[in-house]
Amino acid sequence: MLVIFSKVKTNKLLGSMKAQLFAVLILIGSIPMIIFSVVMISTYNQQAHNQRVSELKYHGNMIANLLVSTGYFSSNSNSKEVDTEIDQVAEIYDGRIVVVDSGLHIVKDTYGLEEGKTIISEEVIKCFRGTNSTYVEPGQQFVEITIPITHLETKEVIGVIVMSFSTKNIIDIKKIVENKAIVLTIALVIAVVMFSIIYAIYATKPFKKVTNSLDRMTEGYLDEKLAVSGYTEMKDISESFNHMIARMQKLEKSRQEFVSNVSHELKTPITSIKVLADSLIMQEDAPVEMYREFMVDITEEIERENKIINDLLSLVKMDKTAGEMNITSISINELLEQLMKRLRPIAAKRNIEVVLESYRPVVAEVDEVKLSLAISNLIENAIKYNVDEGWVRVSLNADHKFFYIKVADSGVGIPEDAQDFIFERFYRVDKARSRETGGTGLGLSIARNAVLMHRGAIKVYSKINEGTTFTVRIPLSYIA
Ligand code: ADP
Prior knowledge:
The protein is an alpha+beta fold. It has helices spanning 2-15, 17-69, 79-92, 122-128, 168-203, 205-219, 232-282, 288-317, 332-348, 368-384, 431-436, 443-453, and strands spanning 95-101, 106-109, 134-136, 142-150, 157-166, 327-331, 353-358, 363-367, 391-398, 402-409, 457-463, 467-475. The model has no long low-confidence stretch (mean pLDDT 87).
């Protein structure tokens, strides 16, 4: 349990932007400094060695020239002067210089230890054969150089100078530089770590702010706005979020309105039924005719209640998110014919002429039940809000992508300022008339939702006292 918990915690920490930012800053800030120090120190060390070796070679060659020009090996003339020179070089560089003649006898040793002895060293013999060498001890504490002494005319090697010097002081300087570099690197790493912590905290502050704001909104403070300053991206996020919240608030408001409308609409018939029933109860010896009359009214109210409930159920089914589409390929011409057949008798009661104009046969992928409900609501409205002896024209047309249904009537028309609201739930232009005709204010909402579920569009054109035309456009192939 504890292991799982700590693993989750570690994952969360590693995944956090703060930790990653912190790690990146440290890597960028420290690694180049460390690499730089290491490279610089090793380059210095190499350079110092090379310099020392070339200086020693220069002096060695000078001594060799001096030995030849003074005839050091043939006579002992001027040898004191040359000896002093050799001693001086050995002293300055804190080392040992040994001069060997062609018989491998040591003729000069600045340490004075081995003069007169014979030297049998590989380097010296090689040097006599013409290969001068530089030997550097692996730990680089010690360097040995052999320089040939060549006769000016015969170019014959007449002797060898062996120089051995300690490089300890170079190593000492390297150590000092190394220590300084370590101190400097540690100081820099500490500074980088501190800067990284401060910057990582600062840089992730807007995110913390967003989380806090979101938490508060989750607690129910939906009126608060998300106001995050800092990065442009964060500002964009908070702006988009505020838009989303505004939309949610609008939806919540419309939901509350809908619930209160539903309660009100459902209560109205019940209140009427109660009033009718109460008056019958209050009147002790009410005649049978009165009972009959009131019962007819009560039945009408029950029917109205039933219609509202049915319309509400249809609307819920048409909810864009909840509804499931049952798509089949059907003839729209036939579907319209069926609807007309059912609605003509209602129109006939008021002598309203209903005609269907089909411009071509149309077969489309639709949900038959939902589309029928939408179109029949439009045609029912065209009859309901018509004048006696009026007309209703339904037309069907199509192109290669869509089919178009037009429902035009010669009715009362819709005032321009009401046209924006007629698709809203429970909206009625004339409440009294709608109630008279048994309207619930839900018909057009159902129709619009059904059309939208088919990825279609519905529009209204109307002129008061002249008539109304609804146009519906739906794709021939269903787009999921
Ligand atoms: P209702 O059940 O009241 O008919 P609808 O949602 O179907 O509800 O229509 C909303 C309102 O739009 C109606 O109350 C009516 O005032 C108006 N309306 C709808 N269709 C027409 C039409 N063809 N002619 C005139 N007014 C209409």
